[in-house]
Design a protein that fits this description.
The protein has 219 residues and is α/β, with parallel strands linked by helices. 47% of the residues lie in helices and 13% in strands. It is globular, with a radius of gyration of 17 Å. Bound molecules: adenosine monophosphate (AMP). Adenosine monophosphate binds next to α2 and α3.
């Protein structure tokens, strides 16, 4: 099963992707998370990507595409994967097509997770992240048990540089300009399922699973 989740930052894409990947028993491949780990570990890729990420800009395609190809060539991704945060523009989508064609594979379904901009800005402004495991929290419906600490590993939670107002605006603008048109790109192939991303985490997960199963995507 090869799935793509498309949605703006703050739509709950990471949280839902994690759950859906487990449900369909495929690895959750999250380009933002791989890039954040590279920045944290100060690898050559991380050093290059850092300034783009902090501004809320996209990291150049050639870097992200080769990083993704490397990840998809790992054995756990041989029979399927869920992509979260990739592709982000037309060039990346075409590169993905070429990579998959090379192994005689194709995307099975694309989930378009929809949340209005006002709600996204509200969620992102309020978001704290664990830079070790990537879990996210907020002060309204997902508070950490111990204030300021990650429930899973106790790490101090931080506000991501790109969850600050200027970068949030920039990321949403890029989403609408570069990423949202991919929905039409995949709709033309009959692959897209639109899902309302507003609501309880479990409820949104149920909507996604039902929609995918309704299209014949099976575990
Ligand atoms: P995310 O966690 O998906 O919001 O990604 C965080 C940041 O990583 C983005 O704002 C970009 O700077 C970078 N990034 C993640 N995925 C990609 C991608 N597919 N192409 C370019 N940049 C990306």
């Amino acid at each position: 099963m090869r799935l793509i989740v498309i949605g703006p930052q703050g739509a709950g894409k990471g949280t839902q992707s994690d759950r859906i990947a487990r449900w369909f028993r495929v690895p959750h491949v999250e380009t933002g998370k791989i890039l954040r780990a590279a920045v944290r570990d100060e690898t050559p890729l991380g050093k290059h990507a850092k300034e783009f990420m902090e501004r809320g800009d996209l990291v150049p395609d050639e870097l992200v595409v080769s990083m993704l190809e490397e990840r998809l060539s790992e054995p756990d991704a041989a029979n399927g994967f869920l992509l979260d945060g990739f592709p982000r523009n037309r060039a990346q989508a075409e590169a993905l097509d070429r990579t998959l064609a090379g192994i005689g594979a194709a995307i099975d379904a694309v989930i378009d997770l929809q949340v209005p901009d006002e709600e996204l800005v509200r969620r992102l402004t309020d978001r704290l992240t664990c830079l070790v495991c990537g879990r996210v929290y907020n002060s309204t419906n997902h508070r950490p048990v111990v204030m300021g600490r990650c429930n899973a590993d106790g790490t101090f939670l931080v506000k991501r540089e790109d969850d600050k107002p200027e970068a949030i605006r920039r990321r949403l603008e890029i989403f609408h300009r570069e990423t949202a048109p991919l929905i039409t790109f995949y709709e033309d192939r009959g692959l897209v399922t639109h899902v309302d991303g507003v609501g309880d985490i479990v409820e949104v997960q149920r909507r996604i699973v039902e929609a995918l199963e309704g299209r014949g995507v099976a575990r």
